[in-house]
Amino acid sequence: MPKKKTGARKKAENRKEREKQNRANRENVDVAKHPCNSAMDCDKCLRRQKNRAFCYFCASVQKLPTCAQCGKTKCMKSSDCVVKHPGVHSTGMGMVGAICDFCEAWVCHGKKCLSTHACSCPLSDADCIECDRSVWEHGGRIFRCSFCHNFLCEDDQFEHQASCQVLEAETFKCVSCNRLGQHSCLRCKACFCDDHARSKVFKQEKGKAPPCPKCGHQTQETKDLSMSTRTHKFGRQSGADDDDGYYYGASGYDSYWKSIASGGGQEEEDNGDDDDYEDEDDEDEDDEEEEEEEEEDEADVEDKLTNLNLGASSASGKIH
Q1: How far, in Å, are 1, 83, 102, 180, 284 from residue 211 at the CA level?
Q2: pLDDT digits (tens, 9 = 90+) for 58-80
Q3: Which 8-state DSSP code applies to residue 199?
Q4: In which band, very low, low, confident or very high, does the pLDDT at 25 lie, cut at 50, 70 and 90?
């Protein structure tokens, strides 16, 4: 006979089951439509941002805070409030009960919201896959990539999704063998064949594609995706009429090192030195020509002075 489960044992198993269900539900939550990620306009600076307890830019408190769990701005008389307010509709700071540490938004003082939001907050690990910023480090909303389902901030969402369907390999072959990869994981950016897509760690559910053997993310068939492979561009991507005079053609680095090995690089350096010497010689020649012109001008002036006839004067001593 198996041992009878105690009350503590039953409670522990039920708690584990609830936590497992919460984690599964959190993966299926539409983050863009959740109240904790709704758009908010600040009352003072009028800047648009994510739903927050305090403005990200001016740190002011909003007049009508929105609950991060249920999305309401007014607490009615007949709700399950921790702080009782019989016969009065509570709004503003009288409605709030806590601030979520994950999404930085107000949670109302309803018993259900206070007890369930922290465990099921969809932004508990919402770090942007591109810039690694958390909710507290930027003012925008959080989104999920429609391909790899990673979190993205408002600044990087379009740029990331434009380049998300690019494999890390140069071909569509399986990473473990040489066959064509029929299943693609958009988180690992890798393809797997039918045999290597089966994993002993992650179980495959009926009617669904096999999970990725590396990360466990749901794979998709490669033919259903607009996948592309990684490309490399080596060398100088330039034409023959470069301004600097260095051109190694379309072969890139290979042609460059061949020219270095054959002494082409030394010739280019020598040509550069010759140009410097030619410039110095031209300057010296110009200086010599200027000096010769000055000497010729002085000689002409002396000849004119010697041939100058002043006639009879009192200084010559010949007075008639």
Answers
A1: 39, 47, 29, 18, 79
A2: 989 888 899 998 888 988 876 68
A3: -
A4: low
